[in-house]
Amino acid sequence: MKQIDIKRGLVCLVMLLMLATQSVFAQYDPKAKEILDAMSKKYQTIGSFESDFSYSMENTTQSISEDFEGKIVVNGDKYRLKMGGQEIINDGNTVWTYLEEVNEVNIDNYDPSEGDISPTQIYNAYQRGFKYVYLEEETTNGETYQVVDLLPENTNNQFFKIRLHINKEDRTLKKWQIFDKNGTMYTYEISNFNPDAEISNAVFSFDTSKYKGVEVVDLR
Predict the structure, then answer these.
(1) What is the DSSP string of 89-138?
(2) Which H or E run includes 73?
(3) Which is nearest to 18 in space by CA: 165, 153, 179?
(4) Residue 20 pLDDT > 70
């Protein structure tokens, strides 16, 4: 269950909205759109990057709490992330999910129409099927962040809110939180962001020769 929950938190992402008081006022907020457009433009100019991140999953009603550290590499629509004993690799066509504990890799086709929010889509997810609303500015460790909520137009989504914390000065995304209808909150926070990384295409494929004895489960 742990691997399933982690993947859901990031890739149904990656994460990814709360039918609480604020959702009543959800709309296509022009201030929120201005902030989101600036963030999206920033990442379009970057193209590729790598960073460390922290991940937490909390469900107070079920007394569940998990924390992991991870690393992510992104180039266009491709990404590779490692956290919590697993790696997820997506080359834009194929997804490999490697489970370290059982030395097993699952291979599947990538289907963006399934509605998953991947790490490469979190920066422009607001453009497809979301309302958005600006909440506030907050200051942490001397940095000012603009907080924006995304709420899905389709209320059948498993998550009901994504909250983005966007650096006011450089327009980078510092943190995002995904709120699930079962009461679970997934939080991702970026650190050591490197927008000048030189990344080879080989990073975005799974090389079985580097995983001795790995069991391959092809689901395609």
Answers:
(1) EE-SSEEEEEEGGGTEEEEEE--GGG----TTTTTTGGGTTEEEEEEEEE
(2) strand 64-75
(3) 179
(4) no
- Strand order, beta sheet including 130-140: 130-140, 143-152, 159-167, 173-180, 185-194, 48-59, 64-75, 78-83, 86-90, 94-99, 104-109, 215-218
pLDDT tens, position by position, 160-188: 898 999 999 999 989 989 999 889 999 98
Full DSSP string of 174-189:
EEEEEEETTS-EEEEE
Position 131, amino acid:
K
Of 2-6, 76-80, 114-118, 152-156, the poorest mean pLDDT is in 2-6
Note whether 121 and 133 are within 8 A (CB): no
Q: Which two tokens stand for residue 27?
A: 């709309």
Question: Of 14, 43, 12, 17, which Cα lies nearest the Cα of 131?
Answer: 17
160 contacts 17 by C-beta, under 8 angstroms? yes
Residue 219 has which token pair? 């689901």
Compute the distance between CA of residue 82 and CA of residue 127 in angstroms, rounded to an integer: 27
CA–CA separation, 149 vs 164, rounded Å?
Answer: 6
Say whether 36 sits in a helix, a strand or coil.
helix
21-73 tens-digit pLDDT: 233 334 678 999 999 999 888 888 887 889 999 989 999 888 889 998 999 99
Compute the mean pLDDT over every residue in the chain, rounded to the nearest whole number: 82
